[in-house]
Amino acid sequence: QNYLSLQTETTNAGFQKLHAKLRDISPDVDVTSIVELLNSNHSLSHWQPVEYLPPDSDCPEILQSEHIIADKLVKHELQTKFVQLKKQFSELSSFVQQNRDVVETLENLEKRCVVLLLATS
Predict the structure, then answer these.
(1) Vertex 78, ends 68 and 86: CA angle to 5°?
(2) What is the tens place of the pLDDT at every residue in 48-81?
(3) What is the pLDDT of residue 114?
(4) 91 CB neighbour count, 10 Å cutoff
(5) C-alpha distances in angstroms, 87 versus 41, 84, 118?
(6) Where are the domains of the chain?
(7) According to the lineage, what is the superkingdom (predicted)?
(8) How far apart are CA 1 and CA 6, in angstroms?
(9) What is residue 51's DSSP assignment?
(10) Burial code of 106-117, b = ≥16 C-beta within 10 A, e = fewer?
């Protein structure tokens, strides 16, 4: 019975804390804080709302399909991502080639060392 009363008190305290936190949260406070942040931080002033651009086709089958709708916004985002991935691929390819060159150089040095050791012994 002591355990049950202790558990009930703990639960009640938890609910009271949660209720106090919920009272502190209100949409007005959230909106006000966002507006204040935007007004105080000028680096965020370049944000613009994203406008939905409908697909180029009026075909309902396209609208209901489970494919990516390639509207102007999506095309731009995909092109940007493709350019980023292409750049990363180029950088990684260069890195891999550099590592291959280093390994080849080390193998050549190892062979020379072995030849020198055999020649001196």
Answers:
(1) 135
(2) 565 666 655 666 666 566 666 667 777 888 888 9
(3) 87
(4) 10
(5) 32, 5, 47
(6) 1-47, 66-121
(7) Eukaryota
(8) 9
(9) P
(10) eeeeeeeeeeee
